[in-house]
UniProtKB/TrEMBL annotation, chains A, B:
InterPro entries: DSBA-like_thioredoxin_dom, GST_Kappa/NadH, HCCAis_GSTk, NahD-like, Thioredoxin-like_sf
Pfam families: DSBA (PF01323)
Domain of life where this protein originates: Bacteria
Keyword Transmembrane annotated: yes
Catalysed reaction equations from the record: 2-hydroxychromene-2-carboxylate = (3E)-4-(2-hydroxyphenyl)-2-oxobut-3-enoate
EC number per UniProt: 5.99.1.4
Main EC class the enzyme belongs to: isomerase
Keywords noted in UniProt: Isomerase, Membrane, Transmembrane, Transmembrane helix
Transmembrane regions: 168-187
Source organism phylogeny: Bacteria, Pseudomonadati, Pseudomonadota, Betaproteobacteria, Burkholderiales
UniProt key word Transmembrane: yes
Protein name as annotated: 2-hydroxychromene-2-carboxylate isomerase
GO MF terms held by the record: isomerase activity
Length: 205, 205
């Protein structure tokens, strides 16, 4: 049997981001079929936006774009057969679940944790940042919520998250989701299929 | 033989916009196969951006986004088998060709004129705004360049273009290309296929 290292596909995402929701829900199945491995790269969009001098999401700051987005995301969820309810609060604070995802990004539970937090935000329309919210998600998965949350809130993990944000800016990330395959950047759920195709068929050099 | 009015698909575009280039080149073939009719809606992005307080394209104002776009557009042109050369000047002034397109938007030559101006900008990397540039495009098509340019620069057409810009803002347009099918808005070349599908299969009411 031929064995080779599967191609790797990074997904940079924030639980506050509705287009990240689409990709977080879709990526694992697509990657499996393409024989690629997903590398989860949770980060906070807020500091990236702040580095551009923005005080909020462009969907909040730009009224016309925001109004369009709320229509577009409904059609997109239909397209991918994903549940959707417009969150009463947008964009939601996502600091704690992002910290937990960062802490657990190499754990076997990471993909399901991410999907469950996303569904909580964009289908159940519930808070995702309170400790009780994150603990509920982890407990539903049969995990030790208290221990994981404690580790996620430890100084080392907080430092890692700040470094992750600096790395995002250094990589030229300006929105989410953003994908990387062998250094090639793809922005937006609309490019997930292209990123998967690149991961499945590495360009010969 | 069954006859029915073909569904109509509006494309709002500016010759200065590189993602408009992709859609202007693709839309006529796609619409023909879907049995839909293209309504050309040339407009100037500049006044729309100015209405948001922006002095230039987001691809110029936002460095990270602009750098990504120059990579993305190369991949997109590969995807659609379209020629591409990065314009030495971006975004190019497009006032005169937009005026000509507005003047001729119901003429049989409109689609080909639009494609030729786009190729001049994004494949030949030539000025598109000088009278000689527009005249060359029209003359290559066997049209009366002098008469068309005179009509395009007449006061009535100038007023029409200002009204078109006000209409764009009123419709909530914030970028280009933007498509409308039966009042439903689709933004970006990435949504052209969805807009075509909507035009081909009207939603029953």
């Amino acid at each position: 049997m031929h064995t080779s290292t599967p191609a790797e596909l990074e997904i940079w995402f924030d639980f506050a981001s509705n287009y990240s929701y689409l990709s977080v829900m879709r990526i694992e199945d697509l990657a499996r079929r393409a024989g690629a491995r997903v590398l989860w790269r949770p980060f906070l969009l807020g500091p990236v936006f702040q580095s551009f001098g923005w005080t909020n999401s462009p969907f909040v700051l730009q009224k016309a774009k925001g109004e369009y987005m709320w229509r577009d995301i409904v059609r997109e969820c239909d397209k991918y057969a994903l549940p959707w309810r417009r969150p009463a609060e947008f964009s939601r604070r996502s600091l704690l679940p992002v910290r937990v995802a960062l802490y657990g990004e190499q754990e076997p539970w990471i993909a399901e944790f991410c999907r469950r937090v996303m569904l909580r935000n964009f289908s159940a329309d519930l808070d995702i940042d309170a400790e009780a919210s994150v603990a509920a998600v982890l407990a539903e998965m049969g995990l030790d919520a208290a221990a994981i949350i404690a580790s996620a809130q430890a100084d080392e993990n907080k430092r890692k998250l700040r470094a992750r944000g600096e790395q995002a800016i250094a990589l030229g990330i300006f929105g989410a989701p953003t994908f990387f395959v062998a250094g090639e950047m793809f922005w937006g759920n609309d490019r997930l299929d292209d990123a998967i195709a690149r991961a499945a068929s590495p360009v010969p050099d």
